[in-house]
Amino acid sequence: MKDKHIQHLYRRIGFGILPTDLEYLSGKSRKEIVEDVFEASNTISTLEVDTSEIKDIFSGMMSEKLDPQTRMKIQKISRQKQIELNAAWIERLSSSKEILREKMTLFWANHFVCEDNFVNYIQQFNNTLRKYALGDFKTFVNAISKEAAMTKYLNTKQNRKKTPNENFARELMELFTLGEGHYTESDIKESAKAFTGYSHNVRGEFVFRKWAHDYGDKTFFGKTGNFNGEDIIDIILEEQQCAIYICSKLYRYFVNDSINEKHINELAEVFYKDYNIENVMRHMLLADWFYDDENIGNKIKSPIEFLVGIKTMVPTDFKKKKQLIHIQRLLGQTLLDPPNVAGWKGGRNWIDSNTIVLRLKLPSLLLNGAYISKIKEGQEDKQITMKKETFKKKYGKHFSTEPNWTYFSKQFKNIDVAAMEQYILACPISKDAKTYINSLEKVSKQEYCVQLMSLPEYQMC
Amino acid sequence: MDRRKFLKQSSLASSLFFVPSFVKAFEDVARNTLGYKRLVIIQLSGGNDGLNTIVPFRNDIYYKERPTLNIAKKDVIKLNDEFGLNPSLTPLKRLYDQGYLSIINNVGYPNPIRSHFRSMDIWQTASDADTFSQSGWIGRYLDTYGKHPYTAIEVDESLSLAMKGENVNAIATKDPRAFHNLSKDPYFKSIHKHQNDPHLSEHNLGYLYKSMIAAQSSAKYIYETSSTVSTVQEYPQNKFGKQLKTTAQFINSGLDTKVFYTALNGFDTHANQLNKQNRLLKQYADGVEAFVKDLKDNGTFKDTLILTFSEFGRRVKQNASAGTDHGTANNVFVIGEHLKKQGFYNNAPNLNNLDDNGDLKFEIDFRTIYATVLDKWLEVDDKKVLNKSFSQLDFI
């Protein structure tokens, strides 16, 4: 497999690949490399921050009902803990060995979109995404339908025989399985009845409230019977459209913003057989078209791909967790805080006047005291240390970060400065930028890395 | 010399030398009729309690349902025989007396949702309660009618969904200097010296370059234009006051921006509501009064319309913690000089006729207000922006 294709693979299933790791894989076959990717994601490492404070409150409770004071107390603890969980997730994304599992978890978090102000519920939800990220889709959908955070978020816990709430049933079909236009309003009404009684206890465990469940007949997709929630999911997955819908989303996320119907049908055929996520992903990553030139370096990175990508090249420690959240907010994607159940739109929608300006400036802000070297070729950047200090005082003060350039230097030790471009950028540099960059002195690998990361080209993956 | 006179004279002066007279004539038409009408949106986030904002001080149900959370009749600033303002809204009363305030009651939407996130979404996207839209109503206005990203500005650090279109997003800035500084590194200018390829946006990388170039020029334009005026008017020393001060500076400098978006947070008063809400309402009213005065002094108030909303009102009955829980319909304030119906636009809520949750029933769909503002104030096709036809109201 060509180096170029290994890099492409790792940019899509992860956040890029460092020179030494690439060297290790170089020369292996596609099959070997892809199997390694799955092998590395065979394990599941849950993501957890310490929520014992909340657990203690639960264990000390006499009844199942939360009084307003306790609820407020838990929410207060949660606000702090959500920041920790967010930071831990970012850290996980840039350091995990289960690369594909983590990238898939990020994908599913924008598919089964959910949020909650109890950190223990959302942490549990997040680990459910991780657990099934490469597993059986049917089990996955059922697990999601029974998650405490989801029964809260889409009101399934308010869905009772006497007062049905259709929210979950609607989104189950519109966003989670089939896509808009592939069901009727009556299908929604009928399936909502099947999910009546879904709820959770205070510890976040699924509870089925028999008294609230509608045991009558439901007519759904032309079938009539006393269906429960699991039956409904079975019937939905019998629709080929479900495989097409999920595969289209996977394709847009991992391959190309624009759909190629031939490729989608190919994936959907594989997926429909057993709804095994790992199998369909394996098919995708082994397919020749995945490595077509038109599918390389053509996607705009999400804010998280951008941020974690920087951290992957130059490990960076954020001294203040709140700043890390703040950056995500400014970039338009805060983990654990989606805009609504439809999630982030992605693609070009990530980019506006504010985010493009910040994206271009952020690498220098985080890694180099806001400094981008502009010394002409053949000249020395004499006062570079002094200039950088002035810059840092003036512009860099907003971010308290510690980039590990020593690690970077080790990684790039055997790489010629002139060859760095292909390790840092996913697409060729456009003509003007190339001319300009070539007119500049390559002061050091560090300065050159910052220059490359400050190009619009660095936004592509 | 006032800014407009200056503009007229300078454009007249320039026309004498080299601008053909018909161009000059067209400019004047453009300025006067298409001109400067601006919309300022104020979002009260968290769900403002409308019943303690516009108080039904003769209503027994109100006092019965809120034994420790009512505004005593003697404290209410009376507007008519039955309704009055929360005592923290004294400055708003002064606007009311001048005929600058229109209060639209019972505004909401069918099948109300009592979740903050979701209800705010609905207000910002103008969608039905059971559909999810990924673009906001101002964003879609930009898609069709925005000439530049800065046609709409959110005076904050990041953009609300309301300001994101299908293709165009507005600009967020609370500090034009910082935004300009961030964008003006000469490095970013040098990498696109000759980028004038008309096909730029056909591929994603080209789109990034195009966005970068537009952002640089927007940041420069906003900073340079807004720094031509300095503010004399005093504003309250809080975040909301600062937002309005910046907004007024944008408006008074003649920035070519049609919509401004601001927000005041903290209205989610589940416990010990009285003091919290009074403090926030005071911030609101003090800020708005200073803002109106600033605009009037600069001759820009007559072309500005201020719309205030919250994602929902609160339950009629108070809860056990001297607060109120999430409710439904609420009042919307429209402030401006050209109001057709000053004071109360329609009847206040009927507390005898509540829904199953004990919440107010909505009478006016908020999207009819949007439609009216789009059509009559911003003078665009409201159906294109709202993707649906709504009947219009008669307040402007």
Question: Explain this structure to me?
Answer:
The complex is a heterodimer of chains A (461) and B (396). Chain A is mainly alpha-helical and 461 residues long. Chain A is 54% helix and 4% strand. Chain A is built from 23 helices and six strands. In chain A, the strands form three sheets. Chain A has a two-stranded antiparallel ribbon with strand order 1-2. In chain A, helix 3 runs antiparallel to helix 15 (277-286), helix 10 packs across helix 11 and helix 14 packs antiparallel against helix 15. Chain B has 396 residues and is an alpha/beta fold. In chain B, the strands form two sheets. In chain B, strands 1, 5, 6, 7, 8, 9, 10, 11 and 12 form a nine-stranded mixed sheet that branches. In chain B, a hairpin with a 4-residue loop joins strand 3 (77-78) and strand 4. The relative contact order of chain B is 0.20. Mean pLDDT of chain B is 89; it is low at 1-34. At the A-B interface, helix 10, helix 18 and helix 22 of A face helix 5, strand 7, helix 7, helix 8 and helix 9 of B.
